[in-house]
Write a structure and sequence with these properties.
Strand content: 15-25%
Order of helices and strands: EEHHHHEHEHEHEHEHEH
CATH architecture of the largest domain: 3-Layer(aba) Sandwich
Helix content: 40-55%
CATH class of the largest domain: Alpha Beta
Length: 217
């Protein structure tokens, strides 16, 4: 049985896409830009909010100064509306409680800003996770393994008994870059094929399947 589980946030334990899309489209409206369907935002997220802002900004609005202005717009709106439609995926809260009761050490590692990641996780899962870490200054975002290695160090966790769970190829590569096994979940923002192509060690399409992998039942 694994002793430590590190979860991705968006698309893995929380369905955040509607709030992210609403914030992005609000910014687009404010600037007179074309809006995007939620499905398109699903393909944009996963590499951090600055990257998301760049992806939905028009080609002629990509200067560093303009992107910084747009990022400020997005951050202000999303900071006030990130709980409007966001919710845990069905079965996730109960799963986390069962894993914790089984003695597992649980953590979250996200490309979302650190303060925002901690606030959202604590809102939906108070007291569940031993550590929540998002994007912090000076640490490269996933799939670079530095952040995950920092989480392992802070938790004093043994990599040999740790698994990373996420919904994207970025998560799979992050895990492998940190020499961890990767479990891909198919209910998130990416396709099953993308997880297979990234080399996921496990693939699950329902919470009971994830529980069986984590508890090695």
């Amino acid at each position: 049985m694994y002793q430590t589980v590190i979860f991705d946030l968006d698309g893995t334990i929380l369905n955040t896409i509607d709030d992210l899309a609403d914030a992005g489209n609000w910014v687009c409206r404010q600037n007179g830009w074309p809006e995007h369907p939620t499905a398109v935002f699903m393909s944009m997220v996963g590499h951090g909010i600055p990257n998301l802002v760049s992806k939905f900004s028009p080609e002629d609005c990509q200067s560093p100064e303009r992107l910084q202005q747009t990022l400020s717009q997005f951050t202000k709106y999303y900071g006030a509306h990130n709980l409007d439609k966001t919710a845990p995926y069905p079965g996730i809260p109960d799963l986390l409680e069962r894993l914790k009761a089984a003695g597992m050490q649980l953590a979250v590692y996200s490309n979302k800003a650190d303060a925002l990641s901690r606030a959202i996780v604590e809102h939906f899962f108070p007291g569940v996770f031993a550590l929540v870490r998002g994007k912090v200054e000076g640490v490269p975002v996933k799939p670079d393994p530095a952040g995950v290695r920092g989480v392992l160090q802070e938790l004093n966790a043994n990599p040999a008994s740790t698994v990373f769970v996420g919904d994207s190829s970025v998560d799979i590569r992050t895990a492998h870059n940190a020499d961890l096994p990767a479990c891909g979940v198919t209910w998130g923002f990416r396709s099953r094929q993308s997880l297979e192509d990234a080399g996921a060690d496990f693939l699950v399409s329902a919470v009971p399947e994830l529980e069986a992998v984590l508890l090695e039942e």
